[in-house]
Amino acid sequence: MSHAVVERELELKLVLSPDRSISVPARLVYRASDPYAVHVVFHIGSHSPVSWTFARELLVEGVFRPCGHGDVRVWPTKVDSRSVICMALSSPDGDALLEAPSESVSAWLERTLRLVPPGSEAENLGLDEALAALLAPTPADDLWLRDSWPSDESGDSDR
Questions:
Q1: Closest CA to 101 of 129, 71, 125, 80
Q2: With contact defined as beta carbons under 8 Å apart, do 9 and 29 qualify?
Q3: Residues 6 or more apart from 139 whose CB is under 8 A from it?
Q4: N or C terminus: which one in the chain shows less Cβ crowding within 10 Å?
Q5: What angle is formed at CA 39 by the lines to CA 109 and CA 3, rounded to 5 degrees?
Q6: Angle at 134 between CA 133 and CA 138, to 5 degrees
Q7: Of 8, 38, 21, 15, residue with least CA distance to 116
Q8: What digits encode the pLDDT tens for the residues 71-102?
Q9: Structural contact between residues 30 and 39, judged by C-beta atoms closer than 8 angstroms
Q10: Are 26 and 46 in contact, with CB atoms under 8 Å apart?
Q11: What backbone torsions phi and psi does residue 81 show, to the nearest 5 degrees?
Q12: Mind listing the pLDDT tens digit for each residue in 109-148?
């Protein structure tokens, strides 16, 4: 199982209103050991970073067309002639609209797709190896299989 990680730090814009936004430092994280997910960590320099995890496939599709529903929605757009990826995140604590530079997100996604190509994610989960390890016989299994179980017919029962 691969332990490779693809990370990218970038400045996102948190949209507060149509004419006001603030910069938010963030880190995009992809782990080959968790191949279906991407992680976006906000407030990376603070004592309480906030992490969102969602399907890599959602971000890949969101680079090209609007997608997602519910807690995470992603779509491409232009802001002041810049190409950006918008991420609308919803939680019980509130909603956030973030803009990420398309070029940075696309380049990072390319690296994740080279590391774990689409369709090969299951191979990186290590399920076969984990199952084989769980089912592998141990020396204790050999002892257990040789010992006979005491039965109700044994001669040393109290009658």
A1: 80
A2: no
A3: none
A4: C
A5: 75
A6: 80
A7: 38
A8: 999 999 998 899 999 999 999 888 999 999 99
A9: yes
A10: no
A11: 65, 10
A12: 999 999 988 887 877 666 566 666 677 777 666 665 665 6
- Residue 77: partners with Cβ closer than 8 Å, 6 or more residues away: 83, 84, 86
* Torsion angle (degrees, nearest 10) of CA 30, 37, 131, 117: -70
Q: Which of 89, 83, 2 is nearest to 40 (CA)?
A: 89
Distance CA 3, CA 124 (A): 9
Q: What is the DSSP string of 12-68?
A: EEEEEETTEEEEEEEEEEEETTSTTEEEEEESTTSSS-EEEEEEHHHHHHHTTS-EE
CB 105 within 8 A of CB 28: yes
What Rg value do the Cα atoms of the chain yield, rounded?
25
Distance CA 100, CA 59 (A): 11
